[in-house]
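Dear colleague,

Thank you for sharing your sequence with our group. We've completed the structure prediction you requested, and as agreed, I am returning the results in plain text so they can be pasted directly into your records. Please verify that the sequence below matches your submission; if there's any discrepancy, let me know and we will rerun it promptly.
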Amino acid sequence: MMKTLIAAVALSCLSTFAHAQSCTVQAGDKKLAGAAKTSFLTKCQKDAGAACDKQAADKKLSGAAKTSFTKKCVTDAVGT
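Please find the predicted structure tokens below.
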């Protein structure tokens, strides 16, 4: 049951950020480097964390499900 819930939540997060470019892609498109890139990525990650926390709250997740969802959601939003 828990694995199904986590999988459903992860897919929901993926679809949410599929339309938006990741923070890393945005930084590359803006040709940011050095301190400007670091600052941009930090702010973008913080904003993604807040958005993912809100989504987790809207889905009434708690405990391990919330942690897993938020971690995956932020990772997808920030990119590599």
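Summary note from our side: The radius of gyration is 14 Å.

Kind regards,
the structure core
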